Amino acid sequence: MKNLLLVYVILLGCFSANAQEFVKKFRIEGHIKGLETPDGKMYLRGLVNANGVNQTDTVEVHDGRFSFSGETEPTCVKIYSKRVGYPNYINPMDIFVGEGNIYVEAIYDTTEYTFLRDVKVKGSPLHDESVIYNRKLTDALGHVDFEKLQKDYMTAQEKRDTTALRKLNEINDELSTKLKQAMDDFIRDNPTSFVSMHVISEISRATGEYLALAKKWFGYMNASVKSSLIGKRIAKNLEYASKGELIGKPAGDFEQPTADGKPVRLSDYRGKYVLLDFWASWCGPCRAENPHVLAAYKRFHDKGFDVLAVSLDTDADKWKKAIEEDALPWTHVSDLKRKNAAVEQFGVSGIPDNFLIGPDGIVIARGLRGDALMMKLEEIFKVK
Predict the structure, then answer these.
(1) What's the CATH number for 255-381?
(2) pLDDT value at 8 more than 70
(3) How far is CA 90 from CA 58, 114, 141, in A?
(4) What fold is seen in the domain 15-123?
(5) Could you tell me the residue ranges of all domains in the chain?
(6) Biggest alpha carbon–alpha carbon distance for the chain
């Protein structure tokens, strides 16, 4: 369930990418009726210059009117203002920008989640294309209450209601199939589109079936856009992510020290089911996952399950403190380098991430978060 929701949100949102050979001049003029800002400014981020460097810009707002101009490669930018009374929140608009003059208008409305309504963008064929793409996805999914589905899923997880979880997963599979088909249709029909390239760019950082889809969709694209900077980035992402496609393959081996300097090898765990867990003390989502891993460890450790945690920390004291605070009894190792050698070996592009490895050293599963780990171990050890 969470995978579908995550992918759907990412694809309809704005993320930056590059296409070096397509730098063009642009101008954005905007009018937000009734706009209130604490500093009288509008901000823009996500511009990409000829060197592939992401840039930002700031302009003054007068009676809700503002303008940005410059040069950028085709990309998705985020225009926003700060919120009155909420300094850590913004009022964002995601806009696909290419060559030419673009006009943006909206109405400031504090009752809306984004504080904006009736957002209209004119003069950007690339943005129009993104709207068509979004509409195709929305039409494919139909009238789905994602908020209710998410709440139902969380409730089922809390109650450990396996019947409800299976039913929700069936719904997820059905929606996921529709979503992927709509994406496939759009990308196949638009092989020179930078909207297609942006979609593939984001998916190229994924794992499992979405990585396979990224490879397939990248194959649809025209050679001209493949040779652009975003095309080169996608190719590099796909090559790197493929290192993590280890399910059904030997996990290999590595050695790293514990906090007290004792060397530990992954092969030391042969004969057991071991969760190779990548995390860090500074990673909030990682810390949030620890209780799930701990519950699985307590339940199945005596049956032959263990955990080997690899930290991306660079500060030994913070690493040790996090282990103590979260009361994590399993073995922890790290080379105390942000670019941990095991991260490179397993193609980990973000944390938390994990690999479940069997007694024979073969990778069984990846990315078992939340109750997914417990359910997988219940399946392996044939218990409920």
Answers:
(1) 3.40.30.10
(2) no
(3) 14, 8, 29
(4) Immunoglobulin-like (2.60.40)
(5) 15-123, 135-244, 255-381
(6) 70
34 and 108 in contact (C-beta within 8 Å)? yes
Q: What would the pLDDT profile of 330-354 be if each residue is shown by its tens digit?
A: 999 999 987 788 988 888 877 889 9
Residue that is written with structure tokens 């171990």 in the block: 377
Which residues on neighbouring strands pair with residue 55, listed in sequence order? Answer: 47
DSSP sequence for 146-176: HHHHHHHHHHHHHHT-HHHHHHHHHHHHHHH
* Pair of tokens at residue 222: 């025209």
| 121-126, Cβ contacts within 8 angstroms, sequence gap of 24 or more | 121/95, 124/95, 124/96, 124/97, 124/98, 124/100, 125/98, 126/74, 126/96, 126/97, 126/98, 126/194, 126/195
d(C-alpha 298, C-alpha 306), whole Å: 10
Instruction: Tell me whether domains 15-123 and 255-381 share a fold.
Output: no
Cβ–Cβ < 8 Å for 167, 155? no
Burial class, 294, CB count within 10 angstroms (exposed 0-12 / middle 13-18 / buried 19+): middle
| 349 contacts 241 by C-beta, under 8 angstroms | yes
HEC per residue, 252-280: CCCEEECCCCCEEEHHHHCCCEEEEEEEC
Say if CB 197 and CB 17 are below 8 A apart: yes
Beta carbons within 8 Å of 150's beta carbon, 6+ residues apart: 1, 2, 5
In terms of pTM, does the model score above 0.85?
no
Amino acid at 162: T
> Nearest 5 degrees, angle CA 203-CA 206-CA 211?
75
| DSSP string for 116-132 | EEEEEEES-HHHHHHHH
Q: Which residues contact 249 (CB under 8 A, 6 or more apart)?
A: 362, 363
| The residue to which tokens 């493949």 are assigned | 226
Residues 33-49 pLDDT 10s: 999 888 899 999 887 66
C-alpha 113/C-alpha 59 separation (Å) is 24
